[in-house]
Amino acid sequence: MSTDVTPALRDALRAIAGVPRLLMALDFDGTLAPEVDSPEDARAIPAAQAAVERLLALPETRLAFISGRALGSLQHVTGATPETLLVGSHGVEYRLDADGDGDPLEPHELERVQVLHDVLEAAVADIDQVWLEHKPAGFAVHSRLATPDDAQRAQRETRARAEERLDGLTVRGGKNVLEFSVRSANKGEAVEHLRRYTHADAVFFAGDDVTDEDAFRVLGDADLGLKSGPGDTAASFRVGGPDEVAHVLDELATLREAARA
In angstroms, how far is CA 150 from the centroid of its own chain? Predict the structure, then answer.
């Protein structure tokens, strides 16, 4: 057993491993995969991938990836099998067992997305190493490769110009990224939607970023929240990063295999 699994965490894992129906809801970047300069190059570390595959093979155990990534990007980096549930863009997009379950944007929302694009593109046009990622309901402004001063300038300029032109935007800050959406959706709502959809008796959720806190806050006494990395959190437990998350998932797989035997 990994030393990353403390006695208190081991007890919590044992309890959740024994529930009849378990939903494994996992963030990807910074949780299963290390942060990389090119987002499309991200992959889960081998130990995490192996543990996820063990859990996916167990009966009455559903796996979902919940990410700020657009759905297509999430599918690409996870290589998710058809039985894996996917939630992209913080809950704007869903891929459930049949088809996508997200509501398409209305014409007025599409118009707002176009205005948002023009505003953000103009705001970052002269800032080096800052780029826009298109998402169905908005854009992410990435500044991972920019200097600290340029990253701050990009976030300051894009926020000010976007909020000047468009009211009612959802703006989320993350690690080296600022996201703008014409729709309001968050990972907490996604967890609750998937809980109902899968009829789960308990939810295991792991995440690393500030946007994952919405999910941690909706977890109940029967659930388990695992924070990957530093930062304030509502999660009950914390580990250092993807390597340690993999150890926890491996232990949970072992416990659930025994419980389901």
Answer: 26
CB burial of 116-134 (b: ≥16 within 10 Å; e: otherwise) equals beebbeebbeebeebbbbe
Enclosing H/E stretch for 228: strand 224-228
Length of the chain: 261
Q: How far, CA to CA in Å, does 31 sit from each of 75, 154, 171, 206?
A: 16, 26, 22, 7
Using CB atoms within 10 Å of the CB of residue 196, give its burial: 0 to 12 exposed, 13 to 18 middle, 19+ buried. Answer: exposed
| pLDDT tens sequence across 26-70 | 999 999 999 888 889 999 999 999 999 999 999 999 999 999 998
Measure Cα distances from 221 to 12, 15, 65 in Å. Answer: 10, 11, 22
Question: Which 3 state secondary structure label does DSSP give 89?
Answer: helix
Average pLDDT over residues 67-84: 93
What is the per-residue pLDDT for 211?
A: 92
Report the run of H or E that residue 25 belongs to, with start and end: strand 22-26
Cβ pair 67, 101 in contact under 8 A: no
Assigned token pair, 217: 């806050």
Is 0.85 surpassed by the pTM of this model? no
Q: Are strands 22-26 and 93-95 parallel, antiparallel or unpaired?
A: unpaired
Helical pair 46-56 and 242-260, crossing angle rounded to 10 deg: 20
Q: Edge-to-edge, what's the strand order for the sheet holding 224-228?
A: 93-95, 85-88, 61-66, 22-26, 202-207, 224-228, 237-239
With 0-12 CB in 10 A as exposed, 13-18 as middle and 19+ as buried, what is 88?
buried
CB atoms within 10 A of CB 218: 19
